[in-house]
Amino acid sequence: KVDLLKVYLVLLTTTTTKSTMVSRFPVDKLFRSAVAKVPKGSVSSLGCMLSMSTQSPRYNGQVRSASSSIREPKYWANPDRRQYKFWNRDDKSFTKEKYSYLLEISPESLKRDARIISLNAPDDAETSALYKEGATLPLSAHFHGHGQTLEDFAHLKDLPAAQHPTTLFVSPSCPNARKQLPQILAAFPSIQWVHVRSAGIDFLISDELAEFQESVYFTNAKGQFSSSLAEYVMMSCSYFAKDLPRLMKNQNNQFWDPYEIEELRGKTLGIVGYGDIGRACAKLASVYGMRIVALRRHPYLSRDDPYCDIVYGRDADSLHKLMGESDYIVCSAPSTVETRGMVNAEAFDHVKQDAVLINLGRGPVIDQAAMTNALQSRKLKGAALDVFAQEPLPKDDLLWKLDNVLLSPHNMDQTATFMAEATDFFLQENLPRFLCGEDLLNPVDVQAGYYATFRACCVVSIERN
């Protein structure tokens, strides 16, 4: 049984860049079944072996710097080529929930406790998984309360300093979260880590929050919604390529009318904002045989990306070039000071005739008036829009009436389980990492408004006065 565990550890520490052994071999089942049969006196030492194995320079195809205590990430985008700091529910390149297992078999792995509070609406059923009756938290994690304002947590100030909260969970369901979050952080200097249960954090960004960038570690649910949105992109491409409105109209009129359709194979998909969502779109589109060009702030991060043919920088000339060569344009950029209004009238002047625009990121990134003009003039063949400058979309907005627009009410990532899975990511992945003093996934730069590219991904060194 001990030999079986050693096999598991060897797989963790020697997996090469392109290896698929870990994903093909049921190592987790093997590991857990073997541990169940090992004498209790041996379990803690075996847990220490597992803990030591994760510190080796290479494991699960992810590269670590053996000499650096903060383990800075390698700067290229293919998760098979670096220590990837961003979680994706479809990613098989690392063993999920490894630190949950570690805490179960080796309590000695615990480096700190977590005293959790949650900022959420009272009817938020998914967040209640943290505190409802029967809720199970990892070892040494304690829930201290939930509310919507600083006043809801005032009673915690009366506790000894050693019992003040260290972890803050933020749900998008909380009204006025932008105002309340900085106030709570100022009232509780003990908070080391804030986790946001959404990919977008624009509902939180403020000058007051930016002051805590260096003293508090922020993470989000990046990677939770990418696959469903990528499916939406391919559906939207097919909607216009196969002229589904005409097909449905003919069926409704019982009219047999064969017509030519368009292939996606060989077409160019341009992606404005090549983060996790953009990459998921590229992955699916490449299967269709589409050519992929992308635009991102740091192009070198995608220099080895297997799904991208060309990566441009985020300057105006690069955007215009992408608009001019793309048959389908996906906007998946976050809403930040730098990106708001980025796809403007000048960009639409450069758009390829009969291109299709798909916006699934944030409405304010696109100049909606300029886009509407391009749709009315038929410079754009059509648009699939899941996000808007104002939501809900006003009933008098012209977009409702345009026959070349496919509208959805910002729900193309709202699967039956998406919020519950986002909460599970916090409970089963990042929280155990925090308790073990390990790197957290999905770091966020609250000043930039999206994921942190260069910041060290470990909370161990964070201290607040």
Describe this structure in words.
By secondary structure, this protein is of the alpha/beta class. Helix content is 31%, strand content 14%. It contains 14 helices and 16 strands. The strands form four sheets. A seven-stranded parallel β-sheet has the order 10-9-8-11-12-13-14, sandwiched between helices. Helix 5 packs across helix 14 (418-435). The longest helix is centred in the C-terminal third of the chain and has 18 residues, at 418-435. Residues 13-32, 38-84 and 453-465 have low confidence and may be disordered.
In short:
This protein has 465 residues and is α/β, with parallel strands linked by helices. The protein is built from 14 helices and 16 strands. Strand 5, helix 6 and strand 6 form a beta-alpha-beta unit.
